[in-house]
Here is the input.
Amino acid sequence: MKLDSQKPKVSAKLRLHPLQWGFETDLSPSKPEYKADTWVQLQELPSPYCQDEALLLCQESEDVWVVWIPEHGEAVLHTSQFHLATDW
Here is the structure.
C-alpha cells in the first residue's frame, strides 16, 4: 500500500470570523423561575410528620410563595427554603 503524501491542489480561502467577546457577562447564579402548580423540594420540614415537598399555590412577593405541604397544610415560604424538585 502506498500513501500519497502530496498536498491536494485545492484552493479554498480560509474565512476567519472575528470573535465577539461580550463585556457584559453576568457570572452571578440565576434565580430559578418558579410557577404556580409546581412541586418543589423543601430544604427544612415545618413538622417532622409532613412531606418533604410542597405545591406552589401563588406568589406573594418576589421571593415569597404561598405553598401547600401534604400532611401540614398551607404555609408561606421564602424561595431560599425550597428548590425545584429534579425527580419529576
